[in-house]
Design the sequence.
């Protein structure tokens, strides 16, 4: 069997390689809209997995960063234009900022060099907060993005806990460890003889808000008590 992570490219590579070997995937995009499958309850091919909601959480991240950065004049979204997720994330981000009357800009980066250029443009647009979409590229460049955020003194909310442990300000996203655990359970069941088509695509149910108080202090931010009370983990 094959277990995939790393977004749609990994899933599509596995699907292209075989139509018979069972595949368990951590799925970040919408199962149906991305064309991976049609019915969550009964996958129609040799593929099943866990939806980790890499998309659909940008509006929540926007709300959270607006709580810690009071009345930001402009908020930016950093997205990878080469990712299928960016279309959904961009649409949801624009819809949410317009709903709350927030000014915004969209920044694009499809490589490490373009990440540097995107942060350099912050001086021109002067956003007071930045939302980073969930993308394998950005996950792999976590240390670089954190260093850039520190260089330009911009508060950033990331998609994963690992960013905050490494020095980022805050994150909100799926508990990835739990999702991998569920993928392991599904893998075991398939190895026992159950077909992927008989295992419904699971929807992640555990999400975590993580805050780094040391980074907040360095940025001159005070974390509201209401936000601290909702945090799943606070790093001091």
Sequence:
């Amino acid at each position: 069997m094959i277990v995939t992570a790393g977004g749609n490219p990994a899933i599509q590579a596995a699907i292209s390689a075989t139509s018979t070997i069972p595949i368990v995937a951590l799925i970040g995009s919408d199962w149906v809209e991305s064309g991976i499958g049609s019915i969550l309850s009964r996958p129609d091919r040799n593929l099943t997995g866990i939806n980790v909601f890499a998309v659909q959480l940008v509006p929540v991240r926007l709300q959270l960063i607006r709580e810690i950065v009071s009345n930001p004049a402009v908020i930016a979204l950093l997205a990878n234009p080469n990712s299928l997720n960016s279309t959904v994330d961009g649409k949801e981000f624009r819809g949410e900022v317009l709903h709350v009357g927030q000014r915004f800009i969209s920044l694009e980066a499809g490589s490490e060099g373009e990440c540097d250029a995107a942060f350099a443009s912050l001086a021109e647009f002067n956003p007071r907060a930045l939302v980073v979409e969930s993308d394998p590229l950005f996950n792999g460049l976590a240390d670089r993005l954190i260093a850039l955020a520190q260089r330009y003194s911009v508060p950033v909310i990331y998609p994963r806990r690992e960013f905050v442990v490494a020095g980022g300000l805050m994150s909100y996203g799926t508990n990835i460890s739990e999702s991998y655990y569920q993928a392991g359970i599904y893998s075991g069941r398939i190895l026992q003889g159950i077909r992927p088509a008989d295992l419904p695509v699971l929807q992640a149910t555990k999400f975590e808000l993580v805050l780094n108080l040391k980074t907040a202090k360095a940025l001159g931010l005070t974390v509201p008590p209401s936000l601290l009370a909702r945090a799943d983990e606070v790093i001091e």
Summary: The two ends are 42 Å apart (CA to CA).
